[in-house]
Amino acid sequence: MTDVFRHEYFDDFEREHANIFASKLALVKTAITLGATRQSGYTVSVGAGTGSYEDALRRDGYTVHRIIEPSANLAAEARARGFEVTEALIQDVPFEELSIDTIFYNGSAFGFINEHDLRDIFQAHYRQLKPGGVLALLDVPPASALGLAVQASFRIDGESYISQVLRASWYSAETPHKEYWRTTEDYQALLEDGGFSRFLTWQTLRRHLIYQNESVEPVVPGYQEGSYVALVAVK
Ligand SMILES: C[S@@+](CC[C@H](N)C(=O)[O-])C[C@H]1O[C@@H](n2cnc3c(N)ncnc32)[C@H](O)[C@@H]1O
């Protein structure tokens, strides 16, 4: 999987969909600060891609101390942005226990990981986080409007209304497909198995896909409406 991603899939999309980017960025900020009630502290981003969100976070005063990104193309881009990048799968990266304040996965890296590995990873994150530390998972849920359209597009060849609508709010059709589509409840259950017991959720991108880039959408509590959802576990 290391070379299937290309940086332009992400950066071109974000340039052309600035309001969607801003809505998703606001959700990341809300998730890692628990709605502006904590400092993010020592922060690790998993599956950061080109580091574009981390770059935007830095401009807004949030430091991402370490990035884990297995794709050589994307890791190089994140490194060029000045981040400390470990080019590896999260499964292969050890961290000391009680050493991290915030771990976030923006853009569903966990959706490329099988359940067996994910259980081990969440257990490890529980140990690696300091007390009060935060693990934030940001995802397009399978039953959301965007989730349904993306999954439908995998099954339809050629041009269709679905592909037309998707271009308004999703990456190019060549962007690698997320393999595992799990609900927010599925992820919560996996996190509970890993030791977490306190959860919060926020969401954004609640409009129909063709209107999502018209303006920045608000972040609101919950997970049952948005096409972009943050499930946050607190240690
Ligand atoms: C859809 S992209 C999201 C990129 C970026 N965070 C964003 O939101 O634009 C998913 C990312 O997860 C990374 N990824 C996939 N499997 C991973 C794993 N096992 N460990 C860490 N990252 C992984 C991919 O290389 C890719 O950069």
Tell me, briefly, the overall form.
globular
Strand content: 15-25%
Question: Would you tell me which CATH topology applies?
Answer: Rossmann fold
Report helical residue fraction: 25-40%
- The ordered string of helix (H) and strand (E) elements is HHEHEHEEHEHHHEEE
* Distance from first to last alpha carbon: 31 Å
Poorly predicted runs of 5 or more residues: none
CATH architecture: 3-Layer(aba) Sandwich
DSSP summary: helix tally: 8
> Strand order, biggest sheet?
3-2-1-4-5-8-6-7
CATH superfamily: Vaccinia Virus protein VP39
- Please tally the β strands and state the result: 8
Structural class: alpha/beta
Overall radius of gyration:
17 Å
Which labels suit this protein?
235 residues; alpha/beta; Rossmann fold; 8 strands; 37% helix; globular; binds S-adenosylmethionine
Describe the structure.
Residues 45-136 form the Methyltransferase type domain. Keywords: Methyltransferase, Transferase. This is Methyltransferase type 11. GO terms for molecular function: S-adenosylmethionine-dependent methyltransferase activity. It comes from Bifidobacterium cebidarum. With 235 residues, the chain is α/β, with parallel strands linked by helices. It has one domain: 3-Layer(aba) Sandwich (Rossmann fold), CATH 3.40.50. Helices cover 37% and strands 18% of the residues. It contains 8 helices and 8 strands. Strands 3-2-1-4-5-8-6-7 form an 8-stranded mixed β-sheet, sandwiched between helices. Helix 5 links the parallel strand 4 and strand 5 (129-139). Helix 6 (145-155) crosses helix 7. The protein is globular and about 50 Å long. The model has no long low-confidence stretch (mean pLDDT 94). Residues 5, 10, 46-49, 53, 68-71, 74, 89-91, 106-109, 112-113 line the site of S-adenosylmethionine. S-adenosylmethionine (SAM) binds at residues 5, 10, 46-49, 53, 68-71, 74, 89-91, 106-109, 112-113.
